[in-house]
Amino acid sequence: MFNEISSLHEECGVFGVWGADNANYLTYLGLHSLQHRGQEGAGIVTNENGKLHSYRNLGLLSQVFANKQRLYDLVGNAAIGHVRYSTAGENKIENVQPLLFDFTDEQFALAHNGNLTNSITLKKELESKGHIFKSSSDSEVLMHLIKISTEEKQIDKIKDALNKIQGGFAYLLLTKDSLIVALDSHGFRPLSIGKLNNGSYVVASETCALDAVNAEFVRDVLPGELITISDKGMEIDHWTNDTKLAFCSMEFVYFARADSDLLGINVHTARKRMGKRLAKEQPVDGDIVVGVPNSSLSAASGFAEESGLPYEMGLIKNQYMGREFIQPTQELREKSVRQKLAAVKGVVRDKKVILVDDSIVRGTTCAYIVRMLREAGAKEVHLRIASPQFKFPCFFGIDIQKKSELLASHKSIEEMRKMFDADSLEFLSEDGLVDAIGLKTDGPDTGLDLSYFDGNYPAYLYDYAETDA
Amino acid sequence: MFNEISSLHEECGVFGVWGADNANYLTYLGLHSLQHRGQEGAGIVTNENGKLHSYRNLGLLSQVFANKQRLYDLVGNAAIGHVRYSTAGENKIENVQPLLFDFTDEQFALAHNGNLTNSITLKKELESKGHIFKSSSDSEVLMHLIKISTEEKQIDKIKDALNKIQGGFAYLLLTKDSLIVALDSHGFRPLSIGKLNNGSYVVASETCALDAVNAEFVRDVLPGELITISDKGMEIDHWTNDTKLAFCSMEFVYFARADSDLLGINVHTARKRMGKRLAKEQPVDGDIVVGVPNSSLSAASGFAEESGLPYEMGLIKNQYMGREFIQPTQELREKSVRQKLAAVKGVVRDKKVILVDDSIVRGTTCAYIVRMLREAGAKEVHLRIASPQFKFPCFFGIDIQKKSELLASHKSIEEMRKMFDADSLEFLSEDGLVDAIGLKTDGPDTGLDLSYFDGNYPAYLYDYAETDA
Amino acid sequence: MFNEISSLHEECGVFGVWGADNANYLTYLGLHSLQHRGQEGAGIVTNENGKLHSYRNLGLLSQVFANKQRLYDLVGNAAIGHVRYSTAGENKIENVQPLLFDFTDEQFALAHNGNLTNSITLKKELESKGHIFKSSSDSEVLMHLIKISTEEKQIDKIKDALNKIQGGFAYLLLTKDSLIVALDSHGFRPLSIGKLNNGSYVVASETCALDAVNAEFVRDVLPGELITISDKGMEIDHWTNDTKLAFCSMEFVYFARADSDLLGINVHTARKRMGKRLAKEQPVDGDIVVGVPNSSLSAASGFAEESGLPYEMGLIKNQYMGREFIQPTQELREKSVRQKLAAVKGVVRDKKVILVDDSIVRGTTCAYIVRMLREAGAKEVHLRIASPQFKFPCFFGIDIQKKSELLASHKSIEEMRKMFDADSLEFLSEDGLVDAIGLKTDGPDTGLDLSYFDGNYPAYLYDYAETDA
Amino acid sequence: MFNEISSLHEECGVFGVWGADNANYLTYLGLHSLQHRGQEGAGIVTNENGKLHSYRNLGLLSQVFANKQRLYDLVGNAAIGHVRYSTAGENKIENVQPLLFDFTDEQFALAHNGNLTNSITLKKELESKGHIFKSSSDSEVLMHLIKISTEEKQIDKIKDALNKIQGGFAYLLLTKDSLIVALDSHGFRPLSIGKLNNGSYVVASETCALDAVNAEFVRDVLPGELITISDKGMEIDHWTNDTKLAFCSMEFVYFARADSDLLGINVHTARKRMGKRLAKEQPVDGDIVVGVPNSSLSAASGFAEESGLPYEMGLIKNQYMGREFIQPTQELREKSVRQKLAAVKGVVRDKKVILVDDSIVRGTTCAYIVRMLREAGAKEVHLRIASPQFKFPCFFGIDIQKKSELLASHKSIEEMRKMFDADSLEFLSEDGLVDAIGLKTDGPDTGLDLSYFDGNYPAYLYDYAETDA
Known about the structure:
The structure is a homotetramer of 469-residue chains.
Chain A: E1 12-18, H1 23-33, E2 41-48, E3 51-58, H2 61-64, H3 69-72, E4 78-84, E5 99-102, E6 107-116, H4 119-128, H5 141-148, H6 154-162, E7 167-174, E8 179-183, E9 192-195, E10 201-204, H7 207-212, E11 216-220, E12 225-230, E13 233-238, E14 247-248, H8 249-255, E15 261-262, E16 265-266, H9 267-281, E17 288-291, H10 297-307, E18 311-312, E19 315-317, H11 330-340, E20 341-343, H12 345-348, E21 352-357, H13 366-375, E22 380-385, H14 413-420, E23 424-427, H15 430-437, E24 448-449, H16 451-454
Parallel strand pairs in A: 14-24, 17-18, 17-21, 21-22, 22-23
Antiparallel strand pairs in A: 1-4, 1-10, 2-3, 2-4, 5-6, 6-7, 7-8, 8-12, 9-10, 9-11, 12-13, 15-16, 19-20
Helix pairs in contact in A: 5-6, 9-10, 9-15
């Protein structure tokens, strides 16, 4: 899957820190390394002795803070930050996170990665009681639930509220005196904790953000945990004990950055294993192995290593591509692909090319890439996909919620092969994927959410139960 | 050499087209694929029935034409364009090309890739006659020489002027009725001609730009050629017959895009051969081979293939890095590197890493990358450079003109190894480089300018003869 | 009072239209003529067949819609718009109006000119019930009150909510099928209705906005009225019958544009009468009469006419002054005044100048203007203020809510005269002001809110009752 | 003439200072007060110990230096600056002044207000010798002439060059060690010298700029003078003794700011006298006198004073109008006028209005203003123009060079009256204008250039001699 123009996007990345003088700058660095998880908007809220300061806007982090004064103004020694992806209709500043709530007597900020499956129902209930929502994001529901909780203590209000929401979520909450971290009961989304040299804690969607701020990895946040970081240190609690790990397998396949470790497993290494396993499962007679840059290069090099074929740069990505060139129509999208991606004639001419891609979602650019390789002189193009057929939508944090958008849900492999004009097309098996990821669990469970491929959702879908999933 | 923050920059990329309805858009696409040759400024001049229209500004092409109307306004069916790199002091809009000359009775536009070695002398002579220069670019000298030529015909004036300048140059001139192309007598800089479906000619610094506009490669421009493209087709002439090919070897090592063919040789493939040869010349006991992204990945994969070691993604580049983060001080530069480049802990931990870089110029980031790998847990770091020691400045189109800026000119290999804290450091031999490039020439000459490594300049240096070269 | 740098600012201007194809453009024109009522932010919400579209941002209207596509995108045939002034701390985009509420089952937009005196109490009550506010503007309270009303019909919910708020307000509400207009029970703020050629209704804070869209004046909105404009025409109702007119006298003195008619009285003409009355009440021996541009020119010409002295341009305002030059410190403010305002040496030299200003609030620039005139050679400077001493803060829609900020509240006339270094200083009497405005009422009441001058507030102050008013 | 949308524009304003620490800021202030003389572009060049620094761009001064760092970077204790008006076709950054010339061995900056009448001929001659112009501005010709002068000393080169150019000009030249000031032999354009508190000299197009920087007026620059200001003080020389004063009468009528003194005469006062004289020459039975804001308010108040009629604000100008709203078509221009200018219904309704305008050039907005007054209820509209019929183009510094653009050149007064739908239309006589200005000269000459009205050009027109003048 050629990443920037695909239709599959992570909903967000989050970062938080408590107890560091340059909380604003650390959060900037952390978010910068999480930019691949969301490019539509970014924001940071800092805590200066209990007073929260905020800035957020649409665009890449570097655009949002192009005026550096915006960042300098966010003083304080604690912060949370967010990078966001959103579907077109919701792409407005009100939805950019962190959401900051200015109550008469307190302030509260919230950053969320994931998707709630009962937020529509909850929102309607709250509106019927006169509640007004400031955003159209599902993330805001939690705040309303906290405010109407009849519990006494704030932490109990939060537990109360967390027990009312369903779905996938990694929440960071910033209050006047703490940074609160919560993960859903299945641990759908990644969330890790690190420690700075000065002993302060940071939390981030991926470990690459811990590296970005020179923090040492401490532990991953586990399903159902509710962690409070404050001047008193880190306190680990649970909002539920009814948990069962079902970590998003697509984080390994596509979303996460290659240098991150997810549940202790390095992503590049896992992808390379996917490529090796794919080479074993679906070998093919070819001259060279080519990966779709950048997301499929690890899998491609694994395929090459296993098959003993040369790994070649048969496609090259233009590194000076801005997002502004993403185009609304198919025709313009093709031109856009040509601007982003080029076949290397001198490499692929007269060659039997094994093209490795990480996944096929809508398949819109796949056909184009095969054509580009043929125009560049490739004799044969064999497509190998380093994950199983993507047939079922996700409801726990990815923005594809319609089966009809997923090519593999209504096309056979042979139909897709023809559509792409490839000489052959094969996918990694689900078992192969599980083995390649190599997550160790105590019982027979894989600990992974593989519903993309088999439709077995680890949790009830609530508001989405009646959709075409 | 980690490309975006290095100190070595190509002076420019040029693109031209004659006879295409969407000359503006084609030139935009062509320049976009040449953006790696210059990121400081960009411009396009179009020809609408003899009337020239121009827009240029500082910044990346996509920034210069962020307001798309700027591009739409450049109507006409012929165009030349330019992307520019410049040293800091000269980074002003007056120097952004193409330069457009509005004479009372004619218009003339000019785009130049290269560096003239006698421009200072020529400029002083012209100023002493009362001439006024509109830019501080050496490129403008040619126009003044054309205007004072006593020849009758314009083409003879141009020949006259070309015979007065020395150095490396690829010139595109746009007049009311033609696109004129000239290459210096050594062919220092690359320049290729292609043909569109409709039979129109395009010319570009690299073949990747021909691919970008779907043009078929026709031929490379040869040393001393003066080519006129007009409604009558392409006419090939010479402004001198005293020519001797000395093509810039650094184009193969670093500058050119991996998918371009230079003198018929694919760049990625040549780089892979450099890596293979390096593995033969300087083998080392290691666990994995890691390339500095993106420019050294080809050489690294060649090294891995030859040595039979796994090629791994031990360094990852953040693709969301804007140029605005380039920093003036060493300390900020290191932070900037951390933002751009990260070591992949999960890959390099406890490994003997063979780190392949394409070249060492100032060496400023090399030490930092080794340190990053060690912090990420690498047991050993063996540095292998896929080109010889870069000891001598360039005067034919690259912006390093001071020997003191070149680390290898005043440090031994062992001194550099210590400085970088590498376990070993070795370079490709000059013979190895020549063989890896594999340019076929009729005689004993290599056809390459290798002066970077041995100081044997293929041409007299004129204004620079007394410098510390 | 030299308007742009003074400390007295109207809270807002509102405009609405129902049933016109180019509702967006009409609202833009209307707001443009109301720009003097607020320069900190602007926004427009349109109604396209029941669907509301919105754009708002900080800055002048022309800056907010500098990208004209922003305006074109606001399709629909009904709209409300708002220009906003705010105090510094609240100057953020969340507070820019119209506020748009996206409920699951309906949309609602709201624009407000005025100030609620019990909003703090109401907001706290609502928050204690779990309500979350999206802005820190008092205007939003109304929406929450509408949502929690137990009435059945929307119009009854609105009446219910209006009966809970206190203070000065002119509200425009845009729903899927109507434009609803409400004025407080004292009619503190101006609000007028006009009719376009096509029979559609428009509503605006001042009649100058009706003129701007070529609408014919129909009537002023009266205290306590609740007017619904829809496809069925205009329906006039009341949300309360307990009304008593107390129209803001400062609208006549300073706020309103000279070409507007307030309650049927032309503002320029009223101001000219203030100047005439002032000349009668406080005559002085002078050579020329000079007004502080632009707000005091009407009064100055009236003073000149009555006194038989020449009306001269002794001060000139730089029309190319942008708001960006307003400065935070006194020193910079003086330099800023010099950039905005200059004394005309050729006019004032050796003259006894009668300087007419409309009012003195903080008095910060007054001293500077007198000094400027003296430096320009004025022999004497007699200051005449065309309104009474401004001693008491306003709580019904102007942003001065601290007595300490009002110079006349703690300085005698003689103290002020010395402070300004004027040869004499006199104010218009309160009776003089009332007579000059000339509002006809049935009973003995003036129909005006004169509390600025005498502290007799026409309504209870609720949350402000304990302030230093 | 309603100023901002009229077709008559001054070509420029210039400002210079030598020997002041904050030369950049003083020049900014000076230019700001000269902004009415040109709004298309602005620039400043400073001298820091002989090294010149420059910034210039299109737009208003406040836009050009919106990023204040641009101004701070212009260090040094001497400077020249320029605000520019240009015709559409030439509105490009290359033409924005001051022009900075970077020669190999020296730097030179130049700012020019005026128009050369033989620049086309000179430019062609220079180009035929191989010279290349960096701008399409006539101002640059002088620099080329200086460079080709065979004189030894720089000041003699400059004299040599000045003697070759014809037309109207006020030149400021900044060199490494001096600020050089030159005025044409007729003194067409205003230029005055002032002195700062610290004894340093400043020079400016109008005295309002001297006031803006708190400088004391010293003297006007006289025709043919060549003044050198340096660390040695001010040295007054002449480049020619063949001089004859013919000061531009339109500076008094329209261009100059009301607070400036031209040749010792205050502009507002002169305009008021024009209005008085007009009232005597062309009395009319009316109720009120209304001026077109802002340029005609002085004349209108003079008319009112003389006629004993009330001076009223019958038209109001929106002070929040940005230039971005100037529109290319007549229809849009009318809408634009409505946004800028409104009739005050409450003032003009049922009144016989005497409308005073300063001049009629193209007459495009005049008809519209009369219509606006009638729509606002004016019973009669009598148009009185405070200058004679404008029939002949200007070639000495104003951008109207085509007779056909001047309404009065091809329409009788009665034709114009009908076109404007005015009840009457009358102009001030030429004698009346001369008397009102009141310039004292030794001989019978008026000392004024009145060619606009009578076609008697004070100098030969050279390149323009054959035009339809």
